[in-house]
Amino acid sequence: MSVLVVGSVALDTVETPFGVADSILGGSAVYFSLAASFFSPVRLVSAVGEDFPEDYREVLRHRSIGLEGLAVRPGKTFRWDGSYEGRMNEAETRQVQQNVLGDFRPVVPEGCKDSRFVFLANCSPHTQLHVRAQVPEAQFVLADTMNVWIETERTALLELLQNVHGLILNDAEARQLSGCDNLLVAARWVCERGPTYCIIKKAEHGAMLMGPAGVFVLPGYPTDSVRDPTGAGDSFAGGLLGHVAASERLSDATLRTALAYGTVVASFTIEDFGTTRLNEIEREDIEKRLEEFINKTHLPEARRG
Amino acid sequence: MSVLVVGSVALDTVETPFGVADSILGGSAVYFSLAASFFSPVRLVSAVGEDFPEDYREVLRHRSIGLEGLAVRPGKTFRWDGSYEGRMNEAETRQVQQNVLGDFRPVVPEGCKDSRFVFLANCSPHTQLHVRAQVPEAQFVLADTMNVWIETERTALLELLQNVHGLILNDAEARQLSGCDNLLVAARWVCERGPTYCIIKKAEHGAMLMGPAGVFVLPGYPTDSVRDPTGAGDSFAGGLLGHVAASERLSDATLRTALAYGTVVASFTIEDFGTTRLNEIEREDIEKRLEEFINKTHLPEARRG
User: Which residues in chain B are contacts of A301 at CB distance < 8 A?
Assistant: First the structure.
């Protein structure tokens, strides 16, 4: 079953303690698509400018990502320029150029309107609601959000919550949205406002899933191989929703396994700049690392049980 | 196999968003002893003043904790007065009165010198070395430390590392000691300086074990029931070393299970002020929660496998 993603396609300039990468392929929809493509066919809805390099388009095509919904608009591609320091926990945004995404109203192509698994990447909740209305048959719509929308478009965000099946956000955002310090309480707060599932990302500390069967947490993949954290969150969402779409069975058990796949795919993303590692790995690398993840985070007795 | 602990016995005054508790039983050796007592016989070495209440002594006796090494010295019992705010991640110390512990040189009773499992609770590394020399037959000595010793007694601390089998410390301390941001790298740094095992506590985010078989991580027990985090770290160490002593088999597998027991026992400690919960629960409550912990943090497939 294919996955539809609506989000950004970007040219990123990133500086980390390990170097600088200039105008590389990035954006939420790109990271999500590449990550999900290991599990399910992906269809991408976004817009780029006339400057978008053919090589970057080829990166997406190489993973058979459907680009019917990728509009080419007059002007320049969205640009993000950011840096990470020290523990690289948080990006400092140096510059954002909205360019062709500034006034973009995403249109889901006719052939994609029957999509059953949909990711609404981080974006104004108004735009997310606009997209949501175009995929009425969706069985599982997962939305991302961030601090700026929680602050400035809270009403629209709460309306969005009533129209999606899952919300994914990071720990600081979950606390900001709910006003609750404890993440279990924050996740329950979200689930009481519409979504069946709430997924809270905790970066190196892993992720939490709240669903009908209660809470489930996984630690991050233990690694000392981090060169560029950009795209980790969207890669996590891609691995997660990719697995859900592939399994075609919506349940807490599916989502729990999906949490592990998201964790593992994101652990590859951060090993090098931009999409480098997602372009290099294959599904078998993911399966092998999932095995390693289980060995490094699951009790032997539990495994035997 | 019994466990020996050398640390503080205290009268704590604690304020959290959930209330205030005045002059309650506390101290590293107390939390450690109560936590370890569910798994193994415990022998406690410390000192109290003439003001130490008989009721508190009874709390320890109730768990059959050996008090032969608990000296009663002229003067007052060690006192700690602290508070927690908001997410209760860190205690703010309002006042410390060393009292009888100020110049205390712990003496391990003759009958305890054959101890094979020893916990050197947080203390000056000079004192820890002094105790270490009194238990030459120990098979597994685990030491705790903290920021002040890393700053002011680094040389003695590095000497201690060459004389213990395990070091346990929190994430900020591990980074401070090693100068490494990444916790895997920090833990390896510690293991290269003597200890076979390094255990890094990450509070609500769980714990990491580094040993000969590599890294192992567990998330914290997911809970919204936190009223007083005091003693969580020492309870964690108690559950951990209690299990190791009970299993009598030193291996990565034992330590990994021990990490889970430590996590679970600490999750009880924080549910109420002081030692309240540790006095209420029984071993079967720990086993039941371990099962819940596995259900909430381990993939079903891995459990089946």
Answer: 257
Q: Which of A217, A223, A299 lies nearest to residue B222, judging by beta carbons?
A: A217
Q: How close is the nearest chain A Cα to the Cα of B200, in Å?
A: 13
Residue B124 C-alpha, separation from nearest chain A C-alpha, in angstroms: 29
Identify the closest residue of chain A to B187 by CA–CA distance.
Answer: A224
C-alpha to C-alpha distance for A230 and A16, rounded to whole angstroms: 10
Q: Which chain B residues are within 8 Å of A302, Cβ to Cβ?
A: 294, 298, 302-303
Mean pLDDT of chain A: 96
- Alpha-carbon dihedral of residues A58, A62, A68, A74, nearest 10 degrees? -20
Nearest to A299 among B208, B215, B257 (CB): B257
Closest chain A C-alpha to B298 CA, distance in angstroms: 6
The whole-number pLDDT of residue A305 equals 43
CB distance B236 to B263 below 8 Å: yes
Please say whether the beta carbons of B240 and B194 come within 8 A: no
- Residues of chain B with pLDDT > 90: what percent? 95
Residues of chain B with Cβ-Cβ distance to A218 below 8 Å are 219, 297, 299
CA nearest to B88 within chain A: A181
Spell out the CATH class of B3-304. Answer: alpha beta
Q: Is the predicted pLDDT of residue B136 greater than 70, yes or no?
A: yes
Cα separation, A254 vs B300, in Å, equals 10
Q: What pLDDT does B305 receive? A: 43
From the list B87, B214, B296, the residue facing A216 with the nearest CB is: B296
pTM to 2 decimal places: 0.96
How many Cβ contacts (< 8 angstroms) between chains A and B? 87
**Pick from B97, B3, B6: which is nearest to B47 by CA?**
B6
Mean predicted confidence (pLDDT) in B218-225:
97
Please state, as a whole number, how many other Cβ atoms lie within 10 Å of the Cβ of residue B86.
8
- Which pLDDT band, with edges at 50, 70 and 90, does A303 fall under? low
Is domain A3-84+94-298 classified as CATH 3.90.180.10? no
Confidence class of residue A90 from pLDDT cuts 50, 70 and 90? Answer: confident
- Reduced to 3 states (helix: H, G, I; strand: E, B; else coil), residue B252 is helix
CA distance A242 to B275: 46
Q: In the structure, what pLDDT confidence band is assigned to residue A300 with cuts at 50, 70 and 90? A: confident
Instruction: With CB atoms and an 8 Å threshold, state whether A182 touches B260.
Output: no
